[in-house]
Amino acid sequence: MVLWGLFFFQYFIISLLLPLTKVFALTPLPLVNKVSAPTARSSLLDSIRIIAIKALGEAQRNNVSLCEIEFPPLLGEKNEFADVDNVQILNRNRDWSMLTASELANEYGEALWLAFPDRKELELATEAWPGRAYQKCTLTTIEDAASVLAGKEQVAQPWGAQFSRFFEKQITQEGAILGARPETASAPPPKLIFAVQPGDGGPLEDWLNLEQCELNDGFLISCNGAFDKLRGGYYPPIIFPKLASCVDRFISRFETLLYLKSLNEKGRGGWIFRVYPEDWQVHLQDRAGGNTLLVLQSATRPTYQEAVDALLRGKPVVSSSASF
Fold it and tell me: This protein's superkingdom (predicted)?
């Protein structure tokens, strides 16, 4: 009788705890191939957009206010052996962000601030994506958003930009160098700020100004801001003390919504993949057919070396997955 009593007691406790435990199935890796560029580039990036927007919804429900999205912007267009330049990367990040913002703006409207690296990039975005459908949100820059939210005196400016602004005052055509100033100050207060490629390929001050864009009651998303460089100590603290402090104080608090990074070591290729709030995944990819094998699943972010080690071992992980 005592044993039966213990059994039913344990069953009762488990039945109470199970509803409180949420198990997240793994999102399957998108159909990527790191060797030969697929023809359906837009379809692949559309898949990443769908995953990212759904992950953002989960983060919002959990009140995660600082979010990071990181993926290869030329995915499906350039393979790992092709030459790329920063202009191509900027253009693809711009296009992906404009399309993503057009969907998010259905909920947020002008309370969504889409912040570009500088005014010229903003200008190019409005030219490449004309029409109200793509401009329902507030289009601005990281620097202008920081100026409105934190005050002009809190904005960090690279020396080149300071010189250009001084020179602009000496000529009659305002905005000829840096681009026209966006009407950020007259926009509704932001509920979501979506920063396009902050810092990476541009001035380091973008990362500092991004901190000034953190909202007390809202969400801040960095899209392809190369936070791995910052976390990995790419910029020595002794040379960049302000940036190092910003990383410790601000960048380190970001949650990863979507992460897709290519791996290549000793003739083996694969991917690090994560979708919030799921576990991190490492996939080994067959170079011939593009088939993938899950070789690491981790609740915490694996280091690059841990991911490489799992790739080289090549041992499969038994895990559930769900279609997205």
Answer: Eukaryota
